[in-house]
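@channel sequence for tomorrow's demo:
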Amino acid sequence: MAAEVEIDVEVLKSEIKKTYASVSREPEKDFIFPTGRPWAEDLGYPEELANVPEGAVESFAGVANPWTMGRLAPGERVLDLGSGAGTDSLIAAQMVAPAGRVTGIDMTPAMLSKARAAAAEMGATNVEFVESEAEQLPFADGCFDVVVSNGVIDLIPDKDAVFAELFRVLVPGGRLQIADVTIQNPVSEEGRRNIDLWTG
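structure tokens (generated this afternoon):
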């Protein structure tokens, strides 16, 4: 039986916050991962992207396109897990309007500030942004119809806790639209302890 590799989760979370605060403050900087509106367009994002303010989209750091799994329906209640600067939340808010609601959660205050500013600029009143961690969601059981997420779950060591929370907050028959990074081969123990490999 392989030994469980220990990683300091608090150090990891701190480094992730630093990385994505930098994406928020310096979106023009070269990161190891692609960012911005051209990247979202290359991924084939839906037409609603055109209405999302540049203040949000310039800090877009998704890894793929969760919208290839389908559009949202008017009236649906949506959780955007790891909402960052709000691009996916603001797209979702347009799709579910007028009666649907979107809640974006993120653990990076700088990203949440950008998301809230972009929502205000867009006049999106059916979206809110909450500071939270994915392993302990501050929501009641069964309060969302859909969870969308883009490039976030791969950053969290305790994936069992994340998926348990997602299933808890989804209504029976709810759905997940997740775009994320996966690996095909096991990562070495040294690699799993390397914070830089976690933060991208």
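heads up for whoever presents: The helical segments are 9-25, 37-42, 54-57, 87-96, 109-122, 159-169, 189-193, 195-199.
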